[in-house]
Write a structure and sequence with these properties.
- With 798 residues, this protein is of the alpha/beta class.
- Helices cover 42% and strands 17% of the residues.
- The chain is built from 31 helices and 23 strands.
- It has an eight-stranded mixed sheet with strand order 6-9-10-8-11-15-7-16, with helices on both faces. It has a seven-stranded parallel sheet with strand order 19-20-18-21-22-17-23.
- The longest helix has 24 residues.
């Protein structure tokens, strides 16, 4: 392979996953590249000689009519062989398209192609390690490449060709030392993808050192200090006119935003300690509204949220506000040390030979280290499946990236953290800054605070499952171990079983914590031994590191709750030992007591969370404010006794973008997936949690304008408050069980109000309709008449 070869991007649309199982090509698209220029195209429908499944038609938008007069594969096969014979084949998932094409050649009596081939999925994963996904549509969106008619072979081939040319350019821009490491490394790349890497020459010849030092090529992270050139001090803008004059065109204020800003300013300037909860509607611009008084207040502030997109927005707003205010402002985002990579540990692993999956991940990290400014491993989480390897390169308090982040936080006026980081880092930061209490803490999207506080310490040890697993290991021959290792395993199993027995018999909490710590250390050592000897690892051993960390946290607490819980599984009584802390005691002793002013801003707060957060000392003033915004109510279509399928069929006749179905559990996801798959005639794709991907993957790849029916479980309520997780304008809840507890309905309605014309299709009882009468308007539907025309009226504005 050399740079002057002809490269041909091939994309196939097929009736099935395998030629041997009856699958056939229905469209082929090819884009030819010569001297790094797109020089030609070839495309053709192909008559498969069989009916095209309705799902394939929905996915590809290729109908029976499109292929009925097209040539059979046998007719164009000789031409295809001539076009591809001396070219390097490129495909997005090359191990599907290339073998499929060869199987079709063999079926027609022609020889298989022997051409070199390159996979663009792997190239994308290495060169763009922080992309949100690696489907063709994800990458073209991420890299601003136009892809019209996705899942049409000609369009996909052209888009893949544009991607490939971007990858080539990206490789040339890598530091020479990084490119050499990629070229010389032992990566499990498909077919001749590694050969392609070797023909690229770097244009970035900076002298970084030797190949072995490539892992240390991290960009310098400087504190984010923003200053203004203005010489006049800016005071708080009291009136709407002053706010409009100050903010100009880059941010527009509204009545609700002004009210929130004024109320927050009034609260922060009070002399007494206090708690203020402000509830708002969506799209108020609340982040700007509280940041203006926080900055002008001039005191050190902590911003708490688990929403990463909100954290980024906070930094952007602070940067913009600093351009308006004549005072230096430094902001910093801080995470726990284990969230950052330890580049020295990673450099050591480069010398080790690991599984193919881990080796490939190392290649991605090499490139990522030339791009990241934070060193946060969460940036490269997509496609990572080996948690143990990631754990082995996580940082501690001495890791380079964490030290830089902590230094920045130490110097900052405004520190942005998530809840778990605050639990771990707050005291250390206060001591470093020599302040007894945080002057201001602002908590936005606080719904998860109580759950995070609980999860931060919660440890659950299923003693019965561990006993069964350990006894099973005791009676089996573990392959690949030396005599000394077998002796170690036998002794470890004996000690672990003894510790479990002592934990069940003892009432001494402190002693049991030490026993659990010792037990988890033994299991961790066994797990590491099984990994080295390539034996399968019991499921109970998977989250040992996290459990061990939590036990050590619990040992530092005074108020610990220990309980034995019992359940029946397959006729056997399961005993689970649970360790927790008293959340309210921790909240009061280690959170509220260290804060002068706590400002909570949210679109919605469940009653139980509100009551928890308002449990503050008597010396605190406790205030609550509602900032209303004139938003369109959500239109509710009552299902009554009609089938949700009938409504879905009527809605999908118009292209209204994504439609969300929330159902009670994974079993019902499968039920509705199968039902919709065969009962709804539509050009919509069906995406289902646990069937087509995890909830995280579905949300990451979601785009509200795509024609997808998305079926999810109530797990979505735990992430619905995240800023980037916008709900579609149409939500269907076919089973009433989802509305238990009713706070879920408040979540959905509040989030849907981000749209101008949201529609909820469900069955609400009289109590629910009355409780949320300010947020909904019930649409009258005549079920005896056709629903399509009635939905035409409702969906007109969408």
């Amino acid at each position: 392979m050399n740079a002057n070869d002809t490269f041909v991007v091939v994309d196939l649309e097929t009736t099935g996953h395998s030629v041997k199982k009856g699958g056939r090509i229905i469209q082929i698209g090819m884009t030819f590249i010569k001297k790094r220029q797109i020089v030609d195209h070839f495309e053709s429908f192909v008559n498969p000689g069989q009916l095209i499944d309705r799902q394939i038609q929905q996915l590809t938008h290729i109908s029976q009519t499109d292929v009925q007069n097209a040539p059979y594969f046998e007719e164009i096969a000789p031409l295809l062989q001539n076009l591809l014979q001396d070219a390097v084949i490129i495909a997005h998932n090359v191990n599907f398209d290339y073998p499929y094409l060869n199987d079709e050649f063999e079926r027609t009596g022609l020889p298989s192609l022997k051409s070199a081939a390159i996979d663009t999925v792997q190239l994308a994963q290495i060169l763009f390690p922080t992309a949100p996904g690696y489907r063709l549509l994800d990458l073209t969106t991420y890299l601003n490449i136009t892809l019209k008619n996705a899942h049409r072979a000609n369009a996909d081939a052209h888009a893949t060709a544009l991607l490939f040319l971007k990858f080539w350019k990206k490789l040339e821009e890598l530091p020479d030392i990084t490119l050499k490491q990629l070229q010389q490394g032992d990566w499990p790349l498909l077919r001749q993808t590694q050969q392609f890497l070797k023909l690229v020459h770097s244009k970035n010849k900076q002298n970084f050192g030797t190949v072995d030092q490539v892992a240390l090529l991290t960009p310098t992270v400087e504190p984010s200090i923003h200053t203004s050139n203005k010489s006049v001090q800016v005071d708080y803008p009291e009136t709407s006119g002053e706010k409009t004059k100050l903010f100009g065109q880059w941010l527009t204020t509204n009545v609700a935003q002004n009210s929130l800003m004024d109320r927050a300013n009034q609260f922060l300037n009070k002399r007494t300690d206090g708690l203020l909860t402000i509830l708002t509607g969506p799209r108020v611009g609340k982040t700007l509204a509280y940041l203006v008084p926080v900055i002008l207040n001039g005191k050190t502030a902590v911003l708490l949220t688990n929403d990463e997109s909100l954290q980024a927005q906070q930094v952007d707003i602070i940067t913009n506000l600093t351009k308006l205010f004549s005072r230096p402002i430094q902001s910093a985002i801080l995470y726990e040390p284990s969230e950052y990579i330890d580049v020295e540990k990673f450099a050591q692993t480069l010398k080790e030979k690991n599984t193919l999956q881990i080796q490939f991940f190392k290649a991605r990290v090499l490139v990522w280290l030339t791009q990241t400014k934070t060193g946060l491993l969460r940036e490269i989480s997509v496609g990572v499946q080996n948690d143990d390897y990631v754990s082995s390169i996580r940082g501690d308090s001495g890791a380079q990236f964490y030290e830089k982040a902590y230094k920045s936080a130490h110097q900052a006026n405004i520190i942005i953290m998530n809840f778990s980081t605050y639990f771990m880092q707050s005291q250390k930061l206060r001591e470093a800054k020599k302040i007894e209490k945080w002057p201001v803490v602002v908590m936005e999207t606080p719904t998860q605070f109580v759950d995070d506080l609980h999860d931060y310490f919660h440890v659950s040890l299923n003693v019965t499952q561990y006993q069964n697993t350990l006894k099973g290991l005791n009676h089996q021959e573990i392959a690949g171990l030396t005599h000394k290792q077998r002796l170690f395993v036998r002794q470890s199993l004996s000690e672990a079983l003894k510790l479990l027995k002592q934990i069940l018999q003892s009432d001494n909490q402190r002693a049991n914590l030490k026993r659990v710590e010792r037990f988890l250390l033994i299991i961790l050592h066994l797990k590491e031994l099984f990994e080295i000897s390539e034996n399968s690892i019991p499921r109970e051993f998977q989250d040992i590191r996290e459990q061990l960390l939590k036990i050590r946290r619990l040992q530092l607490q005074n108020d610990i709750v220990v309980a034995n819980e019992f359940s029946e599984v397959n006729g056997q009584t399961q005993t689970e030992v649970v360790f927790d802390i008293l959340e309210r005691a921790i909240y009061q002793a280690e959170f509220v007591s260290n804060v002068h002013k706590l400002l909570i801003v949210s679109e919605f707060l469940p009653t139980e969370v509100t009551e928890f957060l308002r449990d503050v000392p008597e010396s605190f003033t406790v205030e609550r404010e509602f900032v209303h915004n004139d938003l369109q109510p959500i239109r509710v279509v009552q299902l009554q006794r009609s089938s949700p399928i009938v409504h879905l069929q009527a809605i999908t006749q118009r292209n209204v973008g994504e439609i969300l179905l929330i159902v009670p559990n994974e079993e019902r996801v499968n039920h509705w997936y199968q039902k919709i798959k065969y009962a709804v005639t539509t050009n919509y794709n069906i995406v289902a949690e646990g069937i087509t991907g995890s909830l995280e993957k579905i949300q990451r790849q979601s785009q509200t304008k795509r024609n997808n029916i998305i079926i999810v479980t109530p797990k979505i309520f735990s992430t619905m408050w995240l800023r980037e997780q916008e709900l579609p304008a149409i939500v269907i809840v076919p089973e009433r069980e989802v509305w238990q507890p009713v706070s879920r309905l408040a979540y959905v309605l509040t989030q849907m109000q981000r749209h101008q014309n949201g529609i909820l299709v469900s069955q609400l009882n009289a109590m629910q309709r009355n409780r949320f009468k300010q947020q909904i308007v019930v649409e009258k539907m005549n079920l005896k008449k056709g629903l399509e025309q009635q939905y035409d009226r409702l969906l007109h504005d969408l």
